[in-house]
Amino acid sequence: xxxxxxxxxxxxxxxxxxxxxxxxxxxxxxxxxxxxxxxxxxxxxxxxxxxxxxxxxxxxxxxxxxxxxxxxxxxxxxxxxxxxxxxxxxxxxxxxxxxxxxxxxxxxxxxxxx
Amino acid sequence: xxxxxxxxxxxxxxxxxxxxxxxxxxxxxxxxxxxxxxxxxxxxxxxxxxxxxxxxxxxxxxxxxxxxxxxxxxxxxxxxxxxxxxxxxxxxxxxxxxxxxxxxxxxxxxxxxxx
Lengths: 114, 115
What we know:
The complex is a heterodimer. Helices cover 0% and strands 58% of the residues of chain A. Chain A has strands at 4-7, 10-13, 19-25, 31-38, 42-51, 54-57, 64-70, 73-78, 87-94, 103-105, 109-113. In chain A, strands 2, 4, 5, 6, 9, 10 and 11 form a 7-stranded mixed β-sheet that branches. Chain A has a 4-stranded antiparallel β-sheet with strand order 1-3-8-7, with no helix packed on it. Chain A starts with a strand and ends with a strand. Chain B is an all-beta fold. In chain B, strands 2, 5, 6, 10, 11 and 12 form a 6-stranded mixed β-sheet that branches. A 4-stranded antiparallel β-sheet of chain B has the order 3-9-8-7, with no helix packed on it. Chain B is globular and about 45 Å long. The relative contact order of chain B is 0.34. Chains A and B meet through β5, β9 and β10 of A and β5, β6 and β10 of B.
């Protein structure tokens, strides 16, 4: 199994509060991703990173920001959480070399915004 | 953005039988990569099988195989000798070589295995 951890694993917060989710990898992979998973939508990309301090937006980036100051850590921040951001959040990593470049996923974080 | 469609929200199969999950995708690219992931109740996303579009031969991993029809843009997953542990949500995914390794996922098929 790829060495990917996410913290916290569960969080309950209130509307309007800032929230930061952390993804940590031990594989030294260049690419890291944040997805959210909601019923009927599958996984949707929020932001991704292709290197330290190099990030780009995904399909559903509004209301989210990210930072990557080290290869191993990728942070997702909800500046002011809303109920629509209640979801399960997955981090993923991917090799930068090789044709297949499979994505490997962390265990997920369940976030509830009241 | 590429679109991945899984038209079967739910499927069921008798234990030891065979089931096929469908996936279609929309793309104008000639070279790309396709994946099936399994998500059991633990929520962990597990890679099941992967296929490179330029390879004619269908990928196989033990009891899991794909039927890749490039012209039809179809990538179905066949599970043979179904086991209770195969019960999960299955996601089809597409990766373009041209969009920063971004994956595009279908909405998933929930598979129930009946003892």
